[in-house]
Amino acid sequence: MIAETARAKLNLALHVRARRADGYHDLETLFAFVDHGDTVNVAISETPEFSVSGPFAGALADEGDNLVTRAERAFCETFGISAGHRLHLEKHLPVASGIGGGSADAAATLRALARLHEFDLKDPRLFAIADSLGADVPACLFSVTAIGKGRGERLQPIAGAPGTPVLLVNPGVAVSTAAIFARWSGDDGGALPSGPLLDVAATSRNDLYPPARDIAPEIGGVIDWLESQPGAGLVRMSGSGATCFALFESAAACAAACKAAPPHWWGVATALV
Ligand code: C5P
Hints:
Layout: E1 2-19, E2 25-44, E3 49-53, H1 58-61, H2 67-79, E4 85-90, H3 101-116, H4 124-133, H5 137-142, E5 146-150, E6 154-157, E7 165-170, H6 177-182, H7 197-202, H8 209-215, H9 218-227, E8 232-237, E9 244-248, H10 251-260, E10 266-271
Parallel strand pairs: 3-4
Antiparallel strand pairs: 1-2, 2-4, 2-5, 5-6, 7-9, 7-10, 8-9
The protein binds cytidine-5'-monophosphate.
């Protein structure tokens, strides 16, 4: 059996540049990953099956199709694999929450299958499958700090800030990414500034925050609360929300804020990788 971690993705910055004819938007975004996520287990099996466990399993249990099984089907078709697989997902990340849970699961499935069948992770066919599964899946395939352009698939890795304490908080509202993008103002957010990761993050925005806050006002409450926490630095919403994050000057301050979060919010004190 092969196990792969599906790390949560953060958009430290997200500038929306333009609407495209294919229904997507051109972006400039700063992808980073944290030391917390789902786990995908894959094994060859004569009786193919998909199962899910963990705190957010319920959100997926009723879906006949999901990004893990879709990734497995695309992998087998592309690489001509006739063996069946047993797939198990441990779901620790809230779904539809702006931290790429489904995208990371799809990417982890592709990495696990590539290891199992001994294909190179840099095989361009793997990237092509990732690209076909969703805008964030290519970034999640490598799970390294990177600038993403196009719809997020044109990736330029940049030096990260590993170990930086980060608190993730979600107020428990699921938001539709398509609905948030549809409410974007249409004003070109401009290019991301250049420079070291944390400088770029500090001098940029998430252009999806205003439309997300319109649709789910709870998100504004989360941002205000994070900004009031001792030791919090950069505070921002990730992706199309509703998960927001704060970078902290110390792991102790991050853990203290996590403990102080309202009990009906989902919160995790972790760190950038
Ligand atoms: O690719 P994915 O399925 O994750 O995207 C979900 C939806 O988010 C798309 O159907 C699209 O409406 C929106 N989206 C977008 N521009 C992007 C990424 C996502 O408009 N760059």
